[in-house]
Amino acid sequence: MKKKDPTVNPILNPESKKHSETDFNHFEVLLANRNSGIALETLRHDVTPIGMHYLLSHFDIPYVQDEKQWSLEIGGLVNNPMTLDMDYLKSLPQITQQVTLECAGNGRALFKPHWPSMPWTYEAVGTAEWKGTRLIDVLKTADVKTEAIQWVFSGADEGVDSGVQHDFSRALSIEMANNPDIMLAWEINGQSLPPQHGFPLRLVVPGWYGMASVKWLNRIEAIDYEFQGYQQVGTYVYRKDKDDKGTPVSVIRVKSLMVPPGKPDWYTRKRLLEAGETILQGRAWSGFGTPITKVEIGINDDWFEAEVFPANEKYAWSRWQFNWQAEAGYHQLKCRATDANGDTQPLEPPWDNSGFGNNCVQITEVWVEDDLSNV
Amino acid sequence: MKKKDPTVNPILNPESKKHSETDFNHFEVLLANRNSGIALETLRHDVTPIGMHYLLSHFDIPYVQDEKQWSLEIGGLVNNPMTLDMDYLKSLPQITQQVTLECAGNGRALFKPHWPSMPWTYEAVGTAEWKGTRLIDVLKTADVKTEAIQWVFSGADEGVDSGVQHDFSRALSIEMANNPDIMLAWEINGQSLPPQHGFPLRLVVPGWYGMASVKWLNRIEAIDYEFQGYQQVGTYVYRKDKDDKGTPVSVIRVKSLMVPPGKPDWYTRKRLLEAGETILQGRAWSGFGTPITKVEIGINDDWFEAEVFPANEKYAWSRWQFNWQAEAGYHQLKCRATDANGDTQPLEPPWDNSGFGNNCVQITEVWVEDDLSNV
């Protein structure tokens, strides 16, 4: 048997990671292969087609053969601890909502230097139509004790991060969890959740980055202290450097993306376009259902205002459109959204040590030719 | 307007790519984010869940709002040129088949040095249940002329690769296309094709690497010469070096993969496992429905034979299983399949200049601890 010294199991005793100045290592590529982003051209769809929504699974996707085996335990500081099955949950009043979710690490690869983790560029976003029941109705029945301050939501997925073994768990304050738009969901886009989206039951916290929407949800526990789980305090914290105490990642920052115009080069994904009128279009969204009030289009050094269409629903993205007269040559296209709070996207990535919350404007490089049939 | 010299549009006049010795560049990561691989733990499923099957789209995914707008033209050297709509195709006799498809570039990232392109490691595979009609029945109606030697299948997806503008097109010999198992498919896993799988119509060529299964299929043309399209002769060719005339990539090579045992480290995906009996399991498959006759499991330097279960259907993968007594320490696990032709997987990547056809054995690194509740 080939043995490395078992007293230094590198999973439980990992070396510290360091920022990378340039390229991406084998582990980052493994993560990019396993997780998946939206193809930017599918931003044309109001609701992201099944299988195109971004996916980030920290640990293994649990294998659940039959939802009849599943139960959701509600315990801790409650007067009425409960174990609920899927039949019961599906008998409750149902709601359906279109929700835009984005990974908090979206844009990590655009930081220079970048933190070695899932190297998203722009594509960790999607809008799905979720069906389920209101979380608050279920929690009310459990009757939380007055001394409780947080609910902890745990999934069946387990693993190790930075040497810490844990199940994926995230907390919300009792007050936050009273929001009637937070769902226990069992359907996406009219079908049962696929395994990778949390079958058979998940939390959907609209308006927050995706880490709050715990998949494979099997436990909810009321506690009277601030939850110290790894996914709450070890990561998903904005930090300027590794010693910064930081601020928890929560609500999605205002952002927009463009459907790349023209046609792509396979390898670089840069764009080739024929001169003439071109409809530029895309999506814009912000945190917690804050409406998008403005989208500006940057054509090289000039900015123009796009038409913004109202979102289908409170937590869904808005569509925007701009007619561009494309002239031959090289162009840098940008889009920049502003929301009803007056928040707008920065032109440069807002520094974060671990690469969270990067809502800087997308840049699309386009080469325009007068006649593409001639080249 | 910011202009690079428009006479050197780098999409139409690209620089030559070079092999990379070590890390992966920004373009490779963009491709990995946009395309998606199976999560290896979902190899447990006979049929890969919707949204988990590997996806490789060369160009943009076409936006098709309504299949009523779609038509399939059959022309070239035929006596009866036809334009078929989806209603007509769906009125033909239907077949349903489970087919394991793999990307020809799967394993590219494991070559040292590696070719800069989509940096798959192990995960570009999946088994879907396709529904459609037999290609041959449709082609017979078109009545190919005797001088024709190939059918060219074209998709609606278009772009540029290595400076060459083209629609994605692939050819099959007239004889090959007579295989009654080749399908025109409009459903995957009991539902209409999602856009990214080729909505509304695609070719499925069982047993061949995925590039043959043209998505968004809208034209089939009979020709009397060897097709010279970029996707036929510019890529998908096995070459020892760039000057090698090479051999076309076609049938899938024998391969196997393991469901990683234990639980993962988030970043490295290496595995942590508690000592004791562990069921190792996975999948094995080969080209053109050749049955898997043997799967061997490598535990460090020793090889053992796994139990292999018959495939559900001719072109679907087989499941294999092996009971392992895991002892504390570091282990390298491998799996190696052999098919009924006697072909077996190599231990090292079989060199290919562009990283095609890498069917070398997978290596899974596992750290076993006597008691995981103690660490």
TrEMBL record, chains A, B:
Gene Ontology BP terms: sulfur compound metabolic process
Domain Moybdenum cofactor oxidoreductase dimerisation: 254-360
UniProt cross-references to InterPro entries, sorted A to Z: Ig_E-set, MoCF_OxRdtse_dimer, Mopterin_OxRdtase_euk, OxRdtase_Mopterin-bd_dom, OxRdtase_Mopterin-bd_sf
CDD domains membership: SO_family_Moco_dimer
Domain of life, source organism: Bacteria
Coiled-coil residue spans: none
Keywords tagged on the record: Metal-binding, Molybdenum, Oxidoreductase
SUPFAM superfamilies: E set domains, Oxidoreductase molybdopterin-binding domain
Domain Oxidoreductase molybdopterin-binding span(s) in chain numbering: 58-230
Co-factor(s): Mo-molybdopterin
One MF annotation (Gene Ontology) recorded for this entry: molybdopterin cofactor binding
Keyword Secreted: no
Matches recorded under Gene3D superfamilies: 2.60.40.650, Oxidoreductase, molybdopterin-binding domain
Full protein name: Molybdenum-dependent oxidoreductase-like protein
Source species of the chain: Cocleimonas flava
